[in-house]
UniProtKB/TrEMBL annotation:
Signal peptide (residue range): none
InterPro entries membership: Gfo/Idh/MocA-like_OxRdtase_N, Gfo/Idh/MocA_oxidrdct_glycsds, GFO_IDH_MocA-like_dom, NAD(P)-bd_dom_sf, TAT_signal
Organism ancestry: Bacteria, Pseudomonadati, Acidobacteriota, Terriglobia, Terriglobales
Name this protein carries in UniProt: Gfo/Idh/MocA family oxidoreductase
Domain Gfo/Idh/MocA-like oxidoreductase N-terminal: 42-161
GO terms for MF: nucleotide binding
Residues annotated as domain GFO/IDH/MocA-like oxidoreductase: 234-327
Amino acid sequence: MMSLDRRAFLKAAGIAAAGSGLKMIAQEPRETGQTISANDHIQIALIGAGIQGQGDTGWAVRVPGVKLVAVADCYDGRLAHCKEVWGDDVFTTRDYREILARKDIDAVIVATPDHWHKQAAVDAMTAGKDVYCEKPMIHLYSDGPEIIETARSTKRIIQVGSQRVSSIIYAKAKELLASGAIGQLNMVTARWDRNSAIGAWDYSIPLDASPETCDWPRFEGTAPKIPFNAEHFFQWRKWKAYGSGVAGDLFVHLFSGTHFITGSHGPTRAMATGGIRYWKDGRDAPDVMLALFDYAEGFNLSLHVNFVDGGEESEGLLFTGSEGTIEIAGNSVILNRVPREKEPGYTVSTFTNAMQKEYIAKYRQKYPLEPLTEMHQTGLERFVAPKGYSDSYDHFHNFFDSVRTRKPVVEDAEFGFRAAGAALLSNLSMAKGNVVHWNPTTMKLV
């Protein structure tokens, strides 16, 4: 698989396919001619080796000069599987503090349940490790300031794991919006729909799940204490005690993409509704949620997640402006330009013939007819990422580049807090049954 550089893309023009509106997003290969010295090698550890954690690690170790040396997880089976995948020499433990005490680890991936993100990230940075923290960065609003302050005081790198911020697809949409391609932005509509049990977080529970193979007290952490429950342990996203519902799992991606493309810090107020419509299995997180947000920049954002959508999983964002739309769909960006007429038009057919003639004559004095030969730029263009492109790879590449150079990351703790804080407004609005307000600059509830 060839990996491609987002920054190189930004310097390159789209290459038009002959005779069509299709354009490939052009890039130079990332790794061409690149060598990594022994001193540049980065040794990482994984904290939380579930589905997302092992998936993240798979992408991380593809980056040249990166090696996994340790894993922490509360289920013995996952620790054993990590050795199967990455080698018997990988150190494994239930207690991530053993990992943080090691001097040979440069950075950690925090892919725990949401309620452990803050503590694991803070502990890692305090121990001198750089951190890649899965989204949502926070589980509670109080988590954000502590993570931001720890990153500042320890001077450690922390990047939040919403990979769209590193995507060449989203970079192209950002470029188009900034160029004025669709005029003045007034609305963003985004969705993430699913229609499967696994999509609705009904993850498989291993047959040996028990208090002996699972460190239940460590998993619970700050959550309310209950007897061992394998469903809570392996399907934790379904409960607010450990996860943040569809808002923290999926809305946060849509916020990250929206904020990256528009340059906004976030919404000023929100209202949300939804409920458990189909997956009535004891969970307390909605499977359908709709939310509306106001932005000080003058546009509105509409989001929805539906886990019972009756079709295939789909994700998309539509940016609507005064002169067209930009749609992100799969691996492509679709620009549809329909510029507004330069004149307002008239409706005079119900007037007397004399009045119609007089009105149109004065109208044409103000709005003369344009020459019939004048061309207007309208129509549809589609920009497509190269086959095999992965923004997950690019996001880790950007993270490790920052670890090596100490330059700012593409998605720092403040960006992560603003995206997650905005997403969690949905949960807060539903809980209160009310409109809620947020200051995206100070990152505080109002």
